[in-house]
Design a protein that fits this description.
Layout (H helix, E strand, L loop, with lengths): L3 E10 L3 H12 L4 E5 L19 E4 L1 H9 L12 E3 L1 E6 L6 E5 L9 E5 H13 L4 E5 L2 E6 L4 E5 L4 E9 L6 H5 L4 E17 L6 E6 L5 E6 L4 E9 H9 L2 H16 L2 E3 L6 E10 L3 E2 L2 E3 L14 H18 L9 H30 L3 H15 L2 H12 L2
Parallel strand pairs: 1-2, 1-11, 2-8, 5-13, 11-19
Antiparallel strand pairs: 3-7, 4-7, 5-6, 9-10, 10-11, 12-15, 12-16, 12-17, 13-14, 14-15, 18-19
């Protein structure tokens, strides 16, 4: 006979940052929540944040900040390792290319965004999980999902079962939940990799994030970290990314200096030296919901990182899902179709707009056709002189 290890309101599959935030928020809303983690995954451990600087960072916007603050997670971050972004400079890779600038003062805020290490974020979430009420942590691997009129049931490899009114798929781009629901997927590789590492810069960065669109070489971003450190996110074509990974970091510095030398000065790799890369792709599931199932985070959408909004979209999913479940009528349970339709509608516009924007920009700036390049640079320069439109763009980027 199968062992029933959970019977409640919500079962969340996946324990990345988005899944943990969803578990915390829904549990704090008074719902009975299970967080299903892969076997051997350390969750809510007591370990402190490492002194080494994580090469994987996120540019969290105001939606993400407000969600984490409401969950009592923001103040649990090591804030000495969080860097506020006060301005952003975007330009082409040449001397006379178009330029576009944003700053916090013009947007009437103190910060445009905050740069947070992956390790710091997950440690703060784990700390909050240790004290969460209404939350059950389950370690196991899902094997089967069945959906009835009033309940969804997940069967684990050991035969035990989790029953809930709603299953939340927060299990990443290769989502098992999405596949178990037969939700179709539009997929396209950008034939690029996101190359990430950290540097010390000779000149102060003043909280400015820099981004260069360099056509056949991809998109280079240098994001401010505390002190005189910066985090590199280079969306590089596959062949270039492989070359960068084979080279010493001193060769990467030589590649970067023509772009950032004037603004940041000489770069030195942060010790101990570390560099990573991850494939870049566009993934559009055909639906964010199925019977008694809702998708969040990368399970629901994967976008190009040029705008730094992948994690922000995921936290936006969580914020809307929490709000909708809180506001549902007393006679409706969490997984009723009418409730899930509200979540789908709430996320549709923002997700679609971000997918279209990032995909369109990635295509536009990858073109080396002279007419396209000229019009692109003119467009950047013109946009920089239109404060109303610039204001709307930056407000959307901040989640305002």
């Amino acid at each position: 006979m199968a062992t029933q290890v959970f019977d409640g309101d919500i079962c969340i599959v996946g324990n990345g940052a988005v899944g943990k935030a969803a578990a915390l928020g829904l549990a704090q809303a008074g719902l009975r929540v299970a967080l299903l983690c892969a076997p051997g995954t350390a969750v809510a451990g007591p370990a402190s944040v490492s002194d080494e600087w994580d090469v994987r960072v996120y540019a969290l916007n105001h939606v993400a900040h407000d969600l984490l603050a409401s969950l009592k997670v923001w103040d649990a971050l090591d804030l000495s390792r969080v860097a506020p972004v006060s301005a952003m400079q975007v330009q082409g890779g040449g001397v006379d290319t178009g330029k576009l600038g944003f700053d916090a003062y013009g947007a009437h805020v103190n910060e445009l965004a905050w740069i947070v290490e992956d390790r710091n974020l997950n440690h703060a979430l784990d700390t909050a999980l240790r004290f969460a009420q209404n939350l059950t942590l389950v370690h196991g691997r899902a094997q089967q999902l069945s959906q009835a009129d009033d309940v969804a049931t997940i069967v684990l490899e050991d035969g035990s079962q989790l029953r809930a009114a709603l299953v939340v798929g927060a299990d990443g781009a290769q989502s098992w939940v999405r596949g178990a629901c037969d939700i179709g997927l539009d997929y396209r590789s950008y034939n690029q990799q996101g190359v990430v590492t950290n540097f010390e810069c000779a000149k102060p960065h003043h909280g400015v994030a820099h981004q260069w669109f360099v056509q056949e070489q991809g998109i280079i971003a240098l994001l401010p970290l505390p002190g005189n450190r910066v985090s590199l996110v280079w969306s590089a074509p596959d062949a270039l990314a492989e070359a960068i990974l084979r080279e010493p970091l001193s060769a990467l510095v030589d590649r970067l200096m023509p772009y950032c030398g004037d603004s940041l000065g000489a770069l030195q790799p942060v010790l101990p030296e570390a560099i990573k890369a991850f494939p870049l792709r566009l993934m559009r599931p055909h639906s964010l919901i199925a019977a008694r199932v809702a998708l969040v985070g990368d399970a629901a959408h994967v976008v190009h990182p040029l705008a730094g909004h992948g994690m922000n979209l995921g936290f936006g999913d969580v914020a809307d899902l929490i709000r909708i479940l809180k506001e549902r009528e007393a006679h409706r349970d969490c997984g009723e179709q009418r409730v899930l339709e509200r979540y789908r509608r709430a996320r549709k516009e923002e997700v679609m707009l971000m997918q279209m924007t990032t995909d369109g920009l990635a295509r536009l700036f990858a073109s080396d056709l002279t007419p396209v390049r000229v019009m692109r640079d003119l467009g950047l320069n013109l946009l920089d002189k239109l404060p109303v439109i610039k204001g709307r763009l930056i407000a959307h980027a901040m989640g305002k």
